[in-house]
Design brief:
single chain; alpha/beta; Rossmann fold; 6 helices; globular
């Protein structure tokens, strides 16, 4: 199971700009790729910040299609296990004086609670949390 971080989804929706990411995505089995509700929330926030217009409409349609068609049955919600993992992650980072944003902590909690590898460009933001990480933007 591979959980896609917001930066992976966002970049993939832009089209084949990053050849390394496209190569990595093409090498994965679609059934192994998952989204989580915090990623959907971040994507929605990004769309809502855009001025009303064609670009916003296109991105809104792309995200809806992505979540409802491509990932219809592979969106992981934040559940009780995730909530407990979230608390542990925040406390751990607080003790290390390495703060983590709320949304990143929720995404990390989903990965931790479900034993998923997290695919992200921001590997340093998620290090030392007990999560397997992969950066699909760089050659393996």
């Amino acid at each position: 199971m591979i959980l896609l971080d917001t930066n992976v989804v966002s970049e993939s929706l832009r089209g084949p700009r990053n050849s390394e990411l496209q190569r990595w995505l093409n090498a994965q089995r679609l059934a192994e790729l998952f989204l989580c509700t915090p990623v959907l929330a971040e994507l929605r926030y990004g769309i809502e910040r855009l001025p009303v217009g064609r670009r916003r409409d296109i991105l809104d349609e792309a995200v809806r299609n992505f979540q409802e068609s491509v990932f219809a049955d592979r969106v992981i919600p934040v559940d009780r296990d995730c909530a407990h993992a979230y608390g542990r992650i925040l406390a751990q980072r607080e003790r290390r004086a390495r703060p983590i944003g709320i949304m990143d902590a929720l995404i990390a909690a989903v990965a931790l609670a479900h034993g998923a590898t997290l695919a992200t460009r921001d590997v340093s933001g998620f290090d030392h949390l007990g999560i397997d990480l992969v950066n699909p933007f760089v050659p393996a």
